[in-house]
Amino acid sequence: MVDSLSPANEQCSCRCIHHERVEAAKKHALSPKQNEHLASLFKAMGDPNRLRILWALDSEEMCVCDIALFIGTSESAVSHQLRQLRLLQLVSNRREGPVLYYRLSDSHVSSLIRLAMEHFKMEEHRNV
User: Fold this and answer.
1) How much is the pTM?
2) CA 109 to chain centre
């Protein structure tokens, strides 16, 4: 029996080119700049601590001290992660007196995370 995840099951059993499909993919392709930006976004979300920060900020804004306690790491480490997330426009902040509160930049960030969660929930149901 051939494992469905084996390399043999990832390739066609014959070599054939469907030029119309290749051309359609080229027309639909991202620009190099778009591709780089999207890869950076997913790379940022691929870090477990950054993802935990984003998930926490999905429910309400938090300051660095709160996020550090939630994650169980230093405030310095959280600040570093937040700086990266802010550069990618995934989070924004506001100052209230001495406290700097962070929140998700917009609903799209929340939607990305929630869609990914839905995808994995569907996969869990298929594998049961």
Assistant:
1) 0.77
2) 8
